[in-house]
Amino acid sequence: MPYTLLLLGIMVLVSGIIEFQENRKVIAIISFLSVEFVFFCWYIYTFYVIIICIIVRLKFICSGSGDHNGNGNTYSRNSNRCTSSLGLCQ
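Request: output the structure for the sequence above.
Response:
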């Protein structure tokens, strides 16, 4: 999905530049506004996916069974606190 949005934005940007060079300024302006919207959606979607992946990974790391899970993280049942080697989940 992010790659598709990025390629769509580039395609519409090139189309807008071509329209602008052919003196079709109204269509070129609409294309440029569309490019801004597509790039905005691409940025939000990409940022959202990255944040969700980080949150899911932290939940997975912090829901250990009390043993060392091989990632440098331990979970203590007595203190109910997850200590990460990155210091992310406390």
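The two ends are 33 Å apart (CA to CA).
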